[in-house]
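User: Batch of two.

Assistant: Item 1 of 2:
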Amino acid sequence: MANQPQSMKAVVATLRQENAPALLDLLELHVAVGEMELGAQSLSAALRELAGESAQLAASPALPPSARLHALADYARSASSTAEAQAAALKEIRRGLDAWNLT
């Protein structure tokens, strides 16, 4: 019988049993992806707050250049959406890594 492809869980279990250096590489990737996910989530939250505050400033009658502030709010909302999409993608990558039973 030919060698059957192993699942990543099986590969990780083998690496763990052999105390293989590749396991450390996978763990470092796992941690890095988690940090990227948290960074993207933080960026998204900050941009969402900027969008809200910019919109409030733009609505103020005391500020004549409100069109600029509206544009800023639109840009911040767009950037927030982009960061949220990045965070979601990174979360899926990490979910996949978690399925390998690394930790």
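Item 2 of 2:
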Amino acid sequence: MAEPNAVKTDRFLLETVRLAVALDCVTVCDLPDNVAAVLRQGYSRFGELLLRRASLPMTPEEDMLVGWVLDVIVARLRFLQGLHHGNVLN
């Protein structure tokens, strides 16, 4: 039996929140190599989430919430990338 759309959307939202929390746990105290790996994995996962979002039917409210979490993810990735390339972590 196919999974209801609401369950798919809830699972997707949970995945986006988990990525946001994982990225928020990375700090300037982490080793530069670790941050580089997190950035690679984070951008890859972010791209996967964007593709899945496009194929997932959502209510306007769900889409707004998912969009907000994705905005948080990309902002955190950009922040970490700026720190990493700005030699703050090196």
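The CA atoms of residues 43 and 75 lie 11 Å apart.
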